Amino acid sequence: MTSSSGTKFPLDAKDYELLERIGDGVYRARCILLDEIVAIKIWNLEKCTKDLETIKKEVHRLSSIDHPNLLRSHCSFIDGTSLWIVMPYMSCGSCLNIMKSVYPNGLEEPVVAIFLREILKALVYLHGLGYIHGNVKAGNILVDSEGTVKLGVERMPTSSGNTFVGTPCWIAPEEDTQQVDGYGFKLDIWSFGMTALELAHGHSPFSKYPHTVAPPLTLQNSPCPVYEEDNKFSKSFRELVAACLIKDLEKRPTASKLLEYPFLQHTLSTEYLASTILDSLYPLGERFRKLKEEEAKLVKRIDGNSEKLSQVTIEGLLTSGKPASPVNPVSCNAAQILPMLQNLLIQNDIQRERVISLMQLYDPTAGKFAVLSADFASSLCYKFRDLILQVS
Amino acid sequence: MKGLFKSKPRTPADLVRQTRDLLLYADRSTSLPDLRESKREEKMAELSRNIRDMKSILYGNSEAEPVAEACAQLTQEFFKEDTLRLLITCLPKLNLEARKDATQVVANLQRQQVNSRLIASDYLEANIDLMDVLIEGFENTDMALHYGAMFRECIRHQIVAKYVLESDHVKKFFDYIQLPNFDIAADAAATFKELLTRHKSTVAEFLTKNEDWFFADYNSKLLESSNYITRRQAIKLLGDILLDRSNSAVMTKYVSSRDNLRILMNLLRESSKSIQIEAFHVFKLFAANQNKPADIVNILVANRSKLLRLLADLKPDKEDERFEADKSQVLREIAALEPRDLA
User: Fold this and answer.
1) How far apart, in Å, are the Cα atoms of B155 and each of B151, B165, B210?
2) Region(s) of chain A under CATH 3.30.200.20
3) The domain A95-281: what is its CATH number?
4) ipTM > 0.85 for the complex
5) Locate the Protein kinase domain: which residues (chain A) (predicted)?
6) B59: closest chain A residue by CA
7) Residues on chain B touching A63 (C-beta within 8 angstroms)
8) 3-class DSSP state for residue A92?
9) CATH code for A2-88?
10) Contact assessment for residue A28 and residue A65, using Cβ atoms and an 8 Å cutoff
């Protein structure tokens, strides 16, 4: 397959040298023949046994798109039982990685605006082709050292087999309620609004709230879930986000309409990215290793505690998590949750982000979750039921 | 002049006629070297826009659903003359987006009915050599996915599938599905599967007539391929073919061959679980056959203890009652076998 520039990339693993890991199943590599640095995703097809057809569709999509703001694959081939997908190397990594490593409290508005504008251009293109992206989030926004912003389009089918994507808080409420006919692309607009909040806050919008409670909450509180702290953002930013989160699909704007919103009118060029936030970044491989280490520490810390914790069955926790009935906090404490969290972390890669964000709320000195109110505890139960259903 | 055209709305038939003229132009333009480049580009851009407009009529767009009457008019005009052939031959001259649009247009047209007839099928019957052009596309990396998708849509028509199966083209798929480029190989595999599963009576007829070479090639080129993904897809497809009721005669013959059994037993021992599980679905047919030839019985008996152990350990990742039921039946069959004298 040719890349957009017409270069032919070799279709043999021997022609690439893997240099370092830069993500889960993603490597920085050198194409020996062309002496070019690339990123290679390696998916073990034995491990995602369920759906070869879905994988084929994803790969097809990756090579058939052609837009400067979308990450297109150079080529893909089979090596042993793995599928290798060769892509342009985006040296600065994802927005999520950048925020976690350097900007935990979010990016400044001019920077957010640049990202949003670039992503919208990609969505306009995709929607024009009739594609729904389905996974717009900070973790999928990639940047190279020149400030080029590209949206990653692949949705890796997970080892748990289904095509569940992202975290529920990025997913528009109508995805639950099946009103998507003819409005599929409006789902992406919802996710886009959530991503805007994510970039501005430095974390996912509802990470302080339980994901499974979030969509109904936003449905009731139309037009938009707003935090107290959101008042620190500019009016034009809040206006953009609110429009994306309008629950009425007819009224939720299209990607091309959003490009005309005031917040995106005087956006700086992508070079601004290069000269501001990207300059100060340390190398991607190093950032990935560091984040992994922190993750490992978290697991270890909880591991140390878990010996003292009583074993609770999953069923016990499930039965206590009925919707709308307040749960007795005693039946759902940190002691019960931690071993399960840990388990989930080991079993299931795709849930990692969600689980970790939960784990970060754990206060090891107090031996409990930082915000373990009765409400929160009951919502944890939902979340687990949700997680467990997906895992099993 | 342009203003005149704009003044009254263009009908779907007008659109097709204009597109055809532009395609004729595109087809000729490369052989007219003294043509002005800017003029050529302008025409090509217009052609791309027209193809996109046809797509909007057939698929609808963000503002409107497709209208049946307009689709029928477009389809009728399209197949009235040789537009499809022109579009196929000019495809390499279009840019990527226009190629994709054209592919979608062609795909959609195969399903459009005019006066409750699939006129695309009639057209292709009269122009069946187009399939020869399309299949060549698999060998051109830049065009393979577009031509491949068109090809797959065309074999929705039984008469076209029959043509392909009876031609030498079907043999080419044994190589195409192993092309190093995953994208193209996967596309070819999807088409191969469609060819061998969609039109039951045609497939049964083809397999009955060609079973000797077909399964010999299937075994040696696909099931014994060194390529993991080829083996995995081939064993799955083999199961789909043999388990189809309309192929029961072919199946009975397949499970009476010791060569086939040997290959299946090897696949059962693969380190890949997905391949093992799919292999089981074919292997069970050998065991369940109530008229096993003596040499099949003897192979199963000779390998009995190994087979019983291997099957006992074989479990899908997800619990599967059907699988377990099949498995225990196979285990019983094998355990009860008595060695036989070879006739």
Assistant:
1) 6, 10, 19
2) 2-88
3) 1.10.510.10
4) yes
5) 16-264
6) A130
7) 145, 183
8) coil
9) 3.30.200.20
10) no
